[in-house]
Specification:
Residues 22-141 form the VanZ-like domain. InterPro entries: Teicoplanin_resist-assoc, VanZ-like. It is built from 6 helices and no strands. By secondary structure, the protein is mainly alpha-helical. The protein has one domain (6-34, 43-151).
Length: 182
């Protein structure tokens, strides 16, 4: 008996991807767009890489924490966006470009949303770091994951005949062309 069709597995894979994507976006929205009760707020940083330079001047531990937080905030999108798309046979470069563009747009939307939230500060460097985190996660995980899924995953489901032996896999059936009637 066949455990399930490939189409059903792809639908379940996409459903899990969409669910995890929505959960992650809700978490990011809550973390980034909730009002903060702070006594003072720094000015918005609209100069590229000025915030990263300031973080580096605070020492390696503080810089690693701040830069790492910027890289990790949206990094799961580098995996979840292609997972929600559910395509296994796609160009790695186009997948990377689509994912990074979507990550950059989501990061931009978060930064624009922060302009009206008390206690939140707009920082152009966080947009760069968020987008870089999406790209790094995508490059490290998605090509390997897609290759593994194309091979059949860790446990490949195979059709087994009633005798318990693996059923032979024949050629793919084709539909013959029928000519037009005279």
């Amino acid at each position: 008996m066949r455990q399930g069709t490939d189409g059903q597995a792809v639908i379940r894979f996409r459903a899990v991807g969409v669910s995890l994507l929505l959960a992650h976006l809700l978490l990011v929205g809550w973390l980034s767009l909730r009002p903060l009760d702070v006594p003072w707020v720094t000015a918005a940083n609209l100069s590229p890489f000025a915030g990263i330079k300031a973080d580096l001047s605070l020492g390696p531990a503080v810089a690693a924490r701040r830069i790492g937080a910027g890289l990790l905030l949206l990094a799961p999108l580098g995996v979840l966006l292609p997972m929600a798309g559910g395509r296994l046979h796609v160009s790695p470069w186009s997948s990377l470009a689509r994912t990074v563009a979507a990550g950059a747009l989501i990061s931009l939307a978060i930064e624009l949303g922060q302009t009206g939230v008390p206690g939140q500060v707009v920082d152009v460097d966080s947009m760069f770091l968020n987008t870089a985190g999406v790209a790094i996660a995508h490059v490290l995980v998605v090509p390997v994951g897609r290759a593994r899924l194309r091979r059949g995953g860790p446990r490949r489901v195979r059709e087994v005949s009633r005798s318990g032996h693996e059923a032979p896999q024949g050629s793919t059936p084709t539909i013959s062309r029928v000519g037009m009637a005279p």
